[in-house]
Design brief:
The longest helix has 24 residues, at 90-113. The two termini are 35 Å apart. The protein has one domain: 3-Layer(aba) Sandwich (Undecaprenyl pyrophosphate synthetase). The protein has nine helices and six strands. By secondary structure, it is of the alpha/beta class. A six-stranded parallel beta sheet has the order 3-4-2-1-5-6, sandwiched between helices.
């Protein structure tokens, strides 16, 4: 994708056009991860049920995926449902699962048409059987796509991911009779849900909250963090462009120092 590709979908003379023209397409983050927060507050401010906030959030998901693909990002990861979210009222959880199935059915053709690969991060085997079927179908149908890799974190927890990785790694060591003392960071990373993908360069959190919420704990070690007060259902292309523009202004030192 390119500057010209984006300019075809933004209004001429708009703030979005200015943001697009300010982006250095040679210095894009390879992987952008998003904590989608604020659906409940969005609904409360409008005197609606929480589930209406989740419904409205689907529009933000579509816009973010489309913009990420047009910009030319390699990987986009959206945090959709955490392990802790099972504590929410059953009616809300059921609605979330229903919305997920509806989204996958309605958007699969769009993912295929735009060469987007869909992957699930987390423990999908613990989700309802009908949801698992839809997820597996979307993963299989898009597996050959080579454009944007779209990850959705479902039944996900950062600590659980590291635990699963350690468990799988030790299972291999026991099977092969290898020395556990030879384990290094690369070996463990190869067993994470995101194995084979670059770590996030940019982590976005909506709704103004200043916490990580057990999301990609290993992978975001050196990610730049961008927080906005915008509630997730109101998050649109211009906000993603703002986040990327801010990212490109930062000096990434990875624990080192900058010599002036």
């Amino acid at each position: 994708m390119s500057l010209q590709d984006l300019l075809t979908v933004v209004p001429a003379g708009s703030e979005e056009e200015e943001l697009v023209r300010s982006i250095d397409f040679g210095r894009l983050p390879r992987h952008v991860a998003v904590i989608m927060d604020g659906n409940g507050r969005w609904a409360k401010l409008r005197h609606k049920r929480r589930v209406e906030g989740h419904r409205a959030g689907i529009h933000a998901v579509r816009d973010t995926i489309e913009t990420s693909a047009r910009i030319g990002l390699e990987v986009l990861t959206l945090y959709a449902f955490s392990i802790e979210n099972w504590k929410r009222p059953q009616s809300e959880v059921s609605t979330l699962m229903s919305l997920l199935k509806k989204y996958l059915r309605s958007e699969l053709d769009t993912l295929l048409r735009n060469n987007i690969r869909f992957r699930v991060l987390g423990r999908p085997h613990e989700l309802p059987a009908d949801v698992q079927e839809e997820l597996q179908r979307a993963e299989e149908r898009t597996s050959a796509n080579e454009g944007l890799s779209f990850n959705i974190a479902l039944n996900y927890g950062g600590r659980a991911e590291i635990t699963d990785a350690v468990r799988e790694l030790f299972r291999e060591l026991l099977h092969d009779g290898r020395d556990p003392s030879r384990i290094d960071e690369r070996a463990l990373a190869a067993h994470l849900y995101t194995a084979g993908q670059p770590d996030p360069d940019l982590l976005i959190r909506t709704s103004g909250e200043l916490r990580i919420s057990n999301f990609l704990l290993w992978q975001i070690a050196y990610a730049e963090i961008w927080v906005t007060d915008v509630l997730w259902p109101d998050f649109r292309r211009r906000h993603l462009l703002q986040a990327i523009g801010d990212y490109q202004k930062r000096d990434r030192r990875y624990g080192g120092i900058t010599t002036v």
